Structure prediction request, 255 residues.
Amino acid sequence: MKIILAEDEPLATRRLERELLQIPECDIIGTYADGLSARAAILELRPDVAFVDIEMPGCSGLEMLDGIPEPQIPLIIFTTAYQEHALEAIKAGAIDYLLKPFDGDAVRAAVLKAQKRLKEAGDARRSQRLSSLIGSLDAQKREPIKFETEFWVRGLRGTVRVSVDTIEAIEAARDYVNLHQEHKSHLLRGKISTIAEKLDPEHFLRVHRSYIVHTKFIQAVLKPSNGVRKILMASGRKVPIGRSFNSDVMERITS
Prediction:
């Protein structure tokens, strides 16, 4: 827990430091003797907690908080030698106040209160992030992923529409892919990994680093030949199954 002290009385500062240093969770990152320096430190260092003397030179502890954006205001524990300032401290939004001379038990109680507030704030932020994540996932579920239903391929006679439902297999060819239909093929620019992301996995299956097949055209899985298993497609085309894909392919086909 990062703490700054804004206190113009050296004796009070030393007493407060001594009490806080006995609490392992407390990390004093700065001490300041006037309100203007303390305000600058809050903006720069972003402490979790500030112990602030209500009466200081330059500007009072209450005035010091003016001009600090609300999200950057740390938890404030006011310190004062006057009981009548306690009401001002509470009205100003302080989580606690300490009367001088400081009592060790009172300091520890104020720190515990600050720790509780910080934990509650952290839990609230985590809950908010989780709610946002759940909301995002729910939105994704409500919006079905749109897969390609056709590709437009340039050819010698112009641009041809190729329905994905007619594609038996897709074969990688460096920066292109061959879209194999039953009796013809079309060359389309694009990496096979990119094309795979555009196809509905309910109908298309990656069987090799270089091949994707349409499951409705699968006729059989042939016995291994020279250690390579192949899929027989409706056109008679034989598509190899990569070793790293073998178990996934067999599970999908036999399920």
User: Anything to note?
Assistant: Residues 104-142 form the longest helix (39 residues). The chain has a mean pLDDT of 87.
